[in-house]
Amino acid sequence: xxxxxxxxxxxxxxxxxxxxxxxxxxxxxxxxxxxxxxxxxxxxxxxxxxxxxxxxxxxxxxxxxxxxxxxxxxxxxxxxxxxxxxxxxxxxxxxxxxxxxxxxxxxxxxxxxxxxxxxxxxxxxxxxxxxxxxxxxxxxxxxxxxxxxxxxxxxxxxxxxxxxxxxxxxxxxxxxxxxxxxxxxxxxxxxxxxxxxxxxxxxxxxxxxxxxxxxxxxxxxxxxxxxxxxxxxxxxxxxxxxxxxxxxxxxxxxxxxxxxxxxxxxxxxxxxxxxxxxxxxxxxxxxxxxxxxxxxxxxxxxxxxxxxxxxxxxxxxxxxxxxxxxxxxxxxxxxxxxxxxxxxxxxxxxxxxxxxxxxxxxxxxxxxxxxxxxxxxxxxxxxxxxxxxxxxxxxxxxxxxxxxxxxxxxxxxxxxxxxxxxxxxxxxxxxxxxxxxxxxxxxxxxxxxxxxxxxxxxxxxxxxxxxxxxxxxxxxxxxxxxxxxxxxxxxxxxxxxxxxxx
Length: 502
Hints:
Elements: H1 2-5, H2 11-29, H3 35-42, H4 51-76, H5 85-96, H6 100-133, H7 138-152, H8 160-174, E1 177-178, E2 185-186, H9 200-217, H10 220-231, H11 243-264, H12 270-285, H13 299-322, H14 328-339, H15 346-351, H16 353-370, H17 378-381, H18 389-408, H19 411-429, H20 434-457, H21 469-501
Antiparallel strand pairs: 1-2
């Protein structure tokens, strides 16, 4: 194993870890942007890298961005990323009480601890899970893809029905191109460019990067207020954690690290749900300060921060063992694998362990760095928020267009990026979920391919599906989630209609 993890300790790998951590922190601290945006923008530029270097860079960006969303949440009550919303509940009141340094230290150390424990659990869990995944056939992968789609339907939409519509749109777009079994063309409209299907990377750059730039441009007044607020910041973040704080934190770190990792393993759950659950668990288990939650207690920072960073490691388990992305970020990292000719799944562990183990090792090192490196970078990274977004957004658009074109040197990819950017912007405006659509676009071909293979194996006999107990259990859970989502969506709409009539 030492020879397998050695690539994570080369000077080049350590440079990519530090670079990825810095880039992730910069994108994560800017409200409206995130690590997803950074990964989408930089994916095309990994073509010239070695596979392990590209994956290490993206993993480091992911880890850094999930942590750094807490910085702007604590200092300005403007979460840099969605998971940091839970951190702002107590982090910003702590800043108002003059405890910004203590809150930032609590977020930094909790993020590092959660990330370290999450990676270790994920590493061990992935190794154990691989033996089970080897038993998977087309029926199990079909059920797993359906389960993943049922879970991701809840991402980013205001109600589950809109989330399901977003997933179905992604599935429809995934049908463009040639039939995976018969090779016949579908929805190509006689455009040669579409014969191979919709190119994932330009589409994802549009959905995540361009759409967010459009969204931020539509709220320039709010951006101006944030920039004015950051210009007034004195940059003095004195304070740290005392021995009493660490003693108070240990139970939260132990408990929420495990909870966050397990939540991260669920396709579609990710760091946001882990952070919210982590905050709730911290509040319910607090022995001395339960009534202080929401007014600026350090426990309210420990809970969500340790959970959301632990979820990062967990999200890699379904990606590496089954090829199913566990979050939006791992969906983009999946494309990095595919770009370099790698297919995540159980065979990756047996055939190319020299690639798998450095990934976990590098994530472990990055989370160790999070324990102390950000302390020296925060006051400089915060200044990035002071850059007027009209310049920052233009720069992101420029880089996105270059990246989209650089993949295949095709002008059509630029147009595709813009189209998906507009589509993502419109979906966000009307409270649909671009993230759910993106994951539907990725999981759709996996679902169709395995479903068609299953029908060929069973010669069209659907009843044979019932002879696969693992597949049946996953299918029942998926149907339950879909049914519950429809019921909850109808109930929400009915209540909203009744409230408006009153």
